Amino acid sequence: MSALTLISDPQTATVLLPEFTLLVGIVLMILVPNLGKGTFRLPIPNTNIRIPYLLGGERFAFTSSPRVPGVISVFTLLFSITLALWSQMETPLTDSNIWCIAATGEAFQSCSSVTESTLLQIDGFSRLLEIVFYGALMLCGVAMWSRMPATPRFMIHAQILAGRREDERIAKLIDNRRQVDFHLLLLMVAFGMSIVALAADVFVLFIGLELASLSSYVLIAFMKEKEVAPEAGMKYFIVGSVASAIGLYGASLLYLWNGSLQISELAASWQAMETVDPLALAGLGFLVVTIGFKVSAAPFHLATPDAYSGASSPVAGVLATASKAMGFVVLLRVLVAITMPESGEAFWVPVIGVLAAITMTWGNFGALSTENPKRILAYSSVAHAGYLLAAVAALGLNIQRTGDHVVAELIVAAMLFHLTVLVLFKLGSFLVLSMLESEGKGSKLEDLYGLVKREPLMATALFIFMLALAGVPPLSGFLSKLLLVSGIVDATVHNTMSFENGVIETIRSLHWVFFLALLVFLNSALSLFYYLRIGWVMFFEEPSTRRRLVTAPFLRISIILCLVGTLAFGIGPLADHLMTLVTNAAESFFN
Q1: Which run of H or E residues covers position 295?
Q2: Are 111 and 100 in contact (CB under 8 A)?
Q3: What is the CA radius of gyration of the chain?
Q4: Is the pTM above the cut of 0.85?
Q5: Are residues 17 and 160 in the same domain?
Q6: Which residue in 2, 20, 121, 547 has its CB near the most CB atoms, within 10 A?
Q7: Residue 184 sits in which domain range?
């Protein structure tokens, strides 16, 4: 693909406007904080003519502000969200809802007219996922305005009184550079996730996955003043690197088998096989190992609790929402798009079903045994991965049951709905913990004692988030789990449920995947214990102090927006609009 073509072709540039916006934001992040009064002297004898070149030297007042990097990243992500939404309107920006980008960099409105390999595909499915990714990362960027603040005013005042103006200048400079690094990594994660959402080629998919993952590893260890952060980042990096190496080896085996890594060609070759080729099966298995790590499926989840507890809460929230959604995108692209049979049950259904059962149960029991709120949410994230894997298992057998894509679209729509609203109540929970982290707390359950007496609104918001995670009606978490369970049930009993031979025979006739829906229900009931436990300590225990949490106005606004969304997307017109959006995205995935 030619970079010049990407820039010069008006159609390509228009189709990829959200992605180009991210690139512009990355460039601005590098340039703007370095703008200053730097000059260079012309090498003319006996003269002292200096020409400004703006980079270097004493920086301008607005470029030296530690708030500048955060503003650039948040507004870049906000513009990208707006453009992604705009491109999928009824009268879209590009006059079409589906575009394909060929290997030459040219954009085609009809994917069938692409003569070269298709590397990227832009449709409702990819755009919806981009909105989820950008939204989670934008909330993280807003939260870090308060989590990683500029030099506190009282410290500056003390330094001025002590005559330490140079120390003040250095402290502000270091703090500004630190924020640049953080928000630059945040935009790199967004760019990698965009590539994953748009990818129509396994190698391109892998590039986006690793770009996002490598930046995430650094973000986990970013808060170096915490002893656990570097350790958590190193653990996640080592385990993630091994998983990525296994996935890359799997992709190479698929290339040796097929000669191409384009998803449509891999799917055609897979359908043409009378019996599964061992080389293709091995390559697919290695890729599933990588995906298992990315979605925190048991037993590949062992580094997840350490990573979440060591990272700052906003970063942990991104890992639990956007990163998890990215992993499931890869899973759908690899398992469903490539290996779904034209008829009959997919061969991987038993493997995914067993993984789902182990993952959701292991996650909930792990959450029951810890006293760290962030580790509780980490194990909760593992359990939610199990719920989604159960839906994937049902997806692998729906064609055998229905003969069409209606149930499949329902299941994918339910997964997308769950991943979308999960950003609200899962990331919202981490944002509340971020307020505690700003005062050096949040790693123990005791830190939440009596929170309602310190911050009634924040404690109420966290309690509602916990209820949504548990799936209590009428919150959005209940609706998302209801859709997942109904999709599993519909896929397993569609056209097979009959009570003519009695209840016992009817139960025996059910596909075993049906009982995954029952297991989801039982695990959700089990999770109520540790979710309500957090509510209990906030409302009925005595706090160690009555002092209010940090002011952080933008962080508070973000938490309130998550709270409103958790309530609004559970029932009402907004839930209907979101359901329409995810249904259209599911149709795009299959069409």
Answers
A1: none
A2: yes
A3: 25
A4: yes
A5: yes
A6: 121
A7: 1-87+122-222
